From TrEMBL:
GO terms for cellular component: cytoplasm. This is N-acetyl-gamma-glutamyl-phosphate reductase. The keyword Lipid biosynthesis does not apply. One of its GO terms (biological process) is L-arginine biosynthetic process. Residues 7-145 form the Semialdehyde dehydrogenase NAD-binding domain. It holds the Pfam family Semialdhyde_dh. Its EC number is 1.2.1.38.
């Protein structure tokens, strides 16, 4: 039987997640990369911009406007928030499957989006067809979807850290606290004062306290899993490292009395999920760096009757590019692990 090859395009390949997508997709056995785009570097070789691809991906960067989407099977949008929606509006009816890495389609409706961001959503007709692309939770819906909203990096680690407890309605008062730390690549390729070397090096700080945009994304997903509306106290921090997210989640629980019960619950929930590994000690970001794994350590603190669940992912991979490839595999009916066999890079 001949192997099926799918044509894909990566829109926004000069950025961090776009270049990670190119790395993964260039090694995917069922994919041919038809186009990689950049508006500001159009005409240059991809490898001139990202020298690690020299002799591997020397393909030219195109402008997005030259793409004939009718010839494509899958479009990956690795674009900033607020930009993706214009592309989806233009391309959604052309038959190819779209995987959007931005936050434009992750919330439940254009109204929720507009209220939260105080900004109009340009794609309202058909917004409801977007599927939240967390493969461990919504694989069956993703398989049938033509528009997947790839989850955010903080939301992926946060949601996976507590999903088993919400799914079993074991959280008291529908209320949790999540304290998360991200490497600098989470802020995108453009340098800013916040990401300036001297502001980050040997430094560590919280930001977006009480206001970060991921709060509502996490709350909505937990509310979907749970029997009531969930409230999340979410505080992100900037780590002086290239990549990695460590999320530490705290929850008062019901019906739980031992560590054994908690471990069994997590192992059962993630039993057939090949990329979630349940650990017996706290994971570190280097345990998952460069891979599609999410490592989780669920800990039962008997004294305070709280669960502390610690999750580690690579923000550019499980938090973005490899999650998008996982979603593509599901949407195309391929084995979900295809092209995602990267072993974590450590030390
Ligand atoms: N970095 C991370 O860890 C994660 C990022 N995400 C999300 O993924 C998306 C991409 O992130 P990331 O790769 O970090 O972002 P970058 O800032 O690194 O890259 C963004 C890309 O978008 C392109 N771009 C910017 N403006 C426009 C425009 N108006 N029209 C067309 N192209 C444009 C840029 O290309 P050029 O200027 O060359 O045209 C660039 O290639 C974002 O929505 C982000 O929130 C999600 C999870 C994790
Ligand atoms: C370190 C850093 O700045 N992180 C970004 C989140 C990463 C990202 O862009 O993710 P989403 O697409 O999920 O929003 C932030 O806090 O806004």
């Amino acid at each position: 039987m001949t192997k099926q090859i799918y044509k894909v395009a990566i829109i926004g390949a000069s950025g961090f997640t776009g270049s990670e997508l190119a790395r993964l997709l260039s090694q995917h056995p069922n994919v041919e990369i038809s186009h990689i785009t950049s508006e500001s570097h159009a005409g240059k070789a991809f490898s001139a911009l990202h020298p690690q691809f020299s002799g591997i991906i020397d393909q030219k960067l195109d402008r997005a406007s030259i793409i004939d989407e009718a010839e494509l099977d899958v479009l990956f949008l690795a674009l900033p928030h607020g930009v993706s929606m214009d592309f989806v509006k233009k391309w959604h009816h052309k038959g190819c499957k779209i995987i959007d890495l931005s936050g434009d389609f992750r919330l439940s409706s254009p109204e929720v989006y507009q209220n939260w961001y105080n900004k109009e959503h340009v794609f309202t007709e058909g917004f409801e067809n977007a599927t939240y692309g967390q493969p461990e939770l919504f694989a069956e819906q993703i398989k049938k979807s033509n528009l997947v909203a790839n989850p955010g990096c903080y939301p992926t680690a946060s949601i996976l850290s507590l999903a088993p407890l919400f799914a079993e309605n074991m959280i008291q008062n529908h209320s949790v606290v999540i304290d998360a730390k991200s490497g600098l690549t989470g802020a995108g390729v453009k340098a800013s004062e916040t990401t300036h070397f001297s502001n980050v090096n040997e430094n560590f700080k919280a930001y977006g306290v009480g206001t970060h945009r991921h709060t509502i994304e996490i709350e909505e997903q937990f509310s979907c899993l749970s029997d009531g509306e969930v409230q999340v106290q979410f505080t992100p921090h900037l780590l002086p490292v290239d990549r990695g997210i460590l999320a530490t989640s705290y929850a008062k629980t019901k019906k739980l009395t031992t560590q054994e019960e908690l471990t069994k619950l997590y192992e059962g929930f993630y039993q057939d999920k090949p990329f979630v590994r349940i650990k017996t000690s706290p994971p570190s970001i280097k345990d998952v760096r460069g891979s599609h794994y999410c490592d989780i350590f669920p800990f039962w603190d008997k004294r305070t009757e709280r669960v502390i669940a610690i999750a580690a992912i690579d923000n550019l991979l499980k938090g973005a590019a490899s999650q998008a490839v996982h979603n593509m595999n599901l949407m195309l009916g391929l084995e979900e692990t295809t092209g995602l066999n990267q072993i974590p890079l450590r030390p």
